[in-house]
Specification:
The chain is mostly beta strands and 126 residues long. It is 0% helix and 48% strand. The protein starts with a strand and ends with a strand.
Length: 126
């Protein structure tokens, strides 16, 4: 059974950092594109970042470029999202998602990934 489990969320002060993890099981992890998405209360889901199956290609939403970094360790079936210079507007539930399609440049918008985790809360205090 395919499973994605996010961890690493929490409460942090503005300007601080967090590292989220997405641990995968039940499928051939290194064949899948992985994305991070977030949803704040009363707002639509927003694409944060994605990484290709090999890790050779990454993409970021405009609001996090230069502050967040995505990476993956296929030996550990895990994707990471390093979040630096956090702002109160980064407060949201963060979800990881997996999809078997592999693009030259993975998508953070305009595409609905096939499998989703349950999410982890990130709260940035001002």
């Amino acid at each position: 059974q395919l499973q994605l489990v996010e961890s690493g969320g929490g409460l942090v002060q503005a300007g601080g950092s967090l590292r989220l993890s997405c641990a995968a099981s039940g499928f051939t992890f290194n064949y899948y594109t992985i994305g991070w998405f977030r949803q704040a209360p009363g707002k639509e889901r927003e694409g944060v970042s994605c990484i290709s199956s090999s890790g050779g290609s990454t993409n970021y939403g405009d609001s996090v470029k230069g502050r967040f970094t995505i990476s993956r360790d296929n030996a550990k079936n895990t994707v990471y999202l390093q979040m630096n210079s956090l702002k109160p507007e980064d407060t949201a539930i963060y979800y990881c998602a997996a999809d078997p399609l592999d693009w030259a440049l993975c998508r953070v918008e305009g595409y609905d990934y096939e499998y989703w985790g349950q999410g982890t809360q990130v709260t940035v205090a001002s």
